[in-house]
Request: fold
Amino acid sequence: MVENQPSKKKDTYLVNDQLRQYLNDYNRTTDLQLEYHDLTRYSTSMPLIDYHGVDTLWETVFYNEFDREELFNSLRRIYALLKTDGDTEVLEHLTIARIDYCTFGNSKPFRIRIINRLNDNYDHFYIKKADASRVYGLELEDLLSPNRVTYFLSKNTLVEEHIAGLPGDVFIKDYLEDTEFNQIRIAKEFVKFNERCFIRLLGDMRSYNFVVDITPDIEGSQFRLRAIDFDQQSYEGRKNFYLPQYFKDNNPIIELGIKYMSPETVRQYQLEERSLIAARVKNARVRLNKLIRLMESDTISTPEKVVQLRTELAKHHKNEVFHDCNSMGEIVLTNLELLLAKDFRQSIKIAAK
Reply:
């Protein structure tokens, strides 16, 4: 299988006033004393090495003493906003243990490791450069997936909670050798994850861009795959980029599906996931309608990629309606309409009244 790489470094698109107003209406905005660029003023850095002695490609950054106290106090307040709606009583128990910087990510994130001294538990959160396509990705994840995500925007800074789970590449390497019962469940969950990504056109779900949440059950375990990278929401022009099954990193899970599932079974799970998404559309129809309308008129990709994706999806669905799409938002709407059929169209019509 040919590696499904992005065509080049993704462009960044500013959050426009209309999207910012939408986020404000749904309590996704705040005013921070600290912004992304403040974290870039570190004095030194060193490679972050994992427990196995492997370079993680993150750097741990350090700040001079004059900046550190003010910076750490601001970071503790941001964490309180994420977790306790700004309750400052928790601040005295929080310590900033480490700040890491990712040099290869599109949003160049800073990851903040924070420790609660009362119980020595640690948590993480992220500070990133705001990007409109990522914001649309986060919102669609919150509205259309079984997962909730917490984040907020301040000017051109995006703050996101940590999404817990085993990194997909670690899970594939160390946890696939399991009982047949659990392997079937893993394969089933991947089919559903693949369907969720394709329906809302979230791309680049190679193994290190999702995590696996494992929940022990009466018999075996339950597994859920969760996206953690939303930079490639409706940006690339290649249809296969939105199907995790085409990334060679994910082949070991694909092989489980081939081993245990018939095409009829795969189809059943796809239809089950579409039904669940259709139900979520109905529950969030007003908010989703507003988001899609904003996305339709926004620019989150290049004209060339829009043409390529609409052409490939028209061929995939055997439906010429995609050729009328002039933006990535229109393509997402059309893809939702086709894959969710009347459930989605009815919901949008209700919301528009």
